[in-house]
Amino acid sequence: MPRIQFTTPAGASGTLELDAERMTFGRADDNQLILSDDSVSSHHGEVAYDGNSWTLTDLGSTNGTKVGGNRVESLALDHGTAFQLGNVDCVFVGDGEEAAYAAPTITVSTPSSGYGSHAYNGKLRQGFGPKVKEKNPGGGLLTLLGIVALAACGAAVYFATQMGAS
C-alpha cells in the first residue's frame, strides 16, 4: 500500500497510509490523514490517485508544500519523492515497496569568502566599552518622599486619637 513517511522537527516520525483514491491531509481532525505539527495547516492539502499515479496538491496552506526548499502547488508522487509539508520532512513510498525509505540528508555548505565565511571570534569584539548599568537618580528621592508621607500619616492618626481622647 502506498504511504507517506514523515519526520517532524521535534523528531517524531510516522506513516500515513494512502488507502483511498482521494484523501485530505492536515492538522485538523476532519482530515483523513492527520499530521499534528504546528507548521502544518488545518487543511493543508490533498493526495489523489487517478488510476496511474498519485498527485499531491497544496490547498493554499500557510507554510506551504516544498520540494528542495521551493514552494509548489502540485506534485507528482513517485517512489522516493521527498518533500516538506510546512516544516515536516516527508517521503512518498510507492505501492509494493517493502523497504522503508530513509529521508534524504540535507547538506549545508559554508561560503568560501564574504560575510559568514569565517568562524566568529568573540575576542575581536569592538564596541563602545563595557556595559554599565545606569543609575536611577530619582529613586532615592522617591523613597525619601514615601517615608516622609508615611510619617505624616502616622502623626495625623496619632494627633487625631489624642484630640478624640480629651
Q: Low-confidence parts, pLDDT < 50 over ≥5 residues?
A: 98-110
Strand order of the largest sheet: 2-1-11-10-7-8
- In terms of DSSP E residues, the strand content is 25-35%
Helix share bin: 10-25%
What is the H-and-E element order? EEEEEEEEEEEH
Number of helices: 1
Number of strands: 11
Structure description:
- The protein has 166 residues and is an alpha+beta fold.
- It is built from 1 helix and 11 strands.
- It has one helix at 139-165, and strands at 3-7, 13-17, 22-26, 33-34, 45-49, 54-58, 65-67, 70-72, 74-77, 82-85, 88-93.
- The longest helix has 27 residues, at 139-165.
- The chain starts with a strand and ends with a helix.
- 16% of the residues are buried.
- Residues 98-110 have low confidence and may be disordered.
Short structural summary:
The chain has one helix spanning 139-165, and strands spanning 3-7, 13-17, 22-26, 33-34, 45-49, 54-58, 65-67, 70-72, 74-77, 82-85, 88-93. By secondary structure, it is α+β, with helices and mostly antiparallel strands.
Features:
single chain; 166 residues; alpha+beta; 6-stranded antiparallel sheet; 5-stranded mixed sheet; 1 helix
Layout of secondary structure:
Blueprint: E1 3-7, E2 13-17, E3 22-26, E4 33-34, E5 45-49, E6 54-58, E7 65-67, E8 70-72, E9 74-77, E10 82-85, E11 88-93, H1 139-165
Parallel strand pairs: 3-4
Antiparallel strand pairs: 1-2, 1-11, 3-5, 5-6, 6-9, 7-8, 7-10, 10-11
